[in-house]
Q: What sequence folds into this?
């Protein structure tokens, strides 16, 4: 039987644990020929915590692990029995391989390395609170969001007058 790509549904946030689990199964059962490749595509995002920017990784396909397997029933049962694995995508007892077109898109997206982008995005008309700088503790309405520069143009109400302000997105927080 030939290797085919399968999508394995996992609990969100457990993708890397499932990937390691599959690799352990293959090693423990001495069946390295059954696994050609395993993918958990990620992207870098910029998070702001306590006023500090931090680059972290986030899964592109939350809740999914993609594996190029020579799948038989014993390997299927071993993977299904892993903690945090929900199921293979497809029919209940017969996983459906991904199409070559889908696999090409997933691999292209996984290999595409872009500059880290903000984890939080802003929409025009949204109200935010400024957390740093001369306008700290003022609320403003988002007029424009430049994701590439990480800047917002806000209208901040100061002494009853609307004042346009350009500020870094890391200096504001969403009002919930």
A:
């Amino acid at each position: 039987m030939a290797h085919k790509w399968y999508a394995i549904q996992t609990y969100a946030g457990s993708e890397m644990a499932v990937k390691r689990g599959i690799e352990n199964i293959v090693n423990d059962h001495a069946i390295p020929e059954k696994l050609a490749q395993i993918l958990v595509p990620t992207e870098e995002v910029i998070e702001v915590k306590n006023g500090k920017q931090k680059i972290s990784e986030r899964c592109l396909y939350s809740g999914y692990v993609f594996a190029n397997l020579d799948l038989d029933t014993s390997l299927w049962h071993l993977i299904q029995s892993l903690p945090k694995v929900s199921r293979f995508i497809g029919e209940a007892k017969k996983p459906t391989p991904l199409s070559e077109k889908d696999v090409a898109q997933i691999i292209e997206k996984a290999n595409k390395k872009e500059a880290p982008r903000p984890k939080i995005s802003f929409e025009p008309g949204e109200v935010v609170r400024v957390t740093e700088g001369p306008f700290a503790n003022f609320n403003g309405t988002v007029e424009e969001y430049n994701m590439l520069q990480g800047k917002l143009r806000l209208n901040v109400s100061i002494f009853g007058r609307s004042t346009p302000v350009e500020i870094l997105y890391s200096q504001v927080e969403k009002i919930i």
Remarks:
- The mean pLDDT is 88.
- The first helix runs from residue 15 to 28.
- The two ends are 53 Å apart (CA to CA).
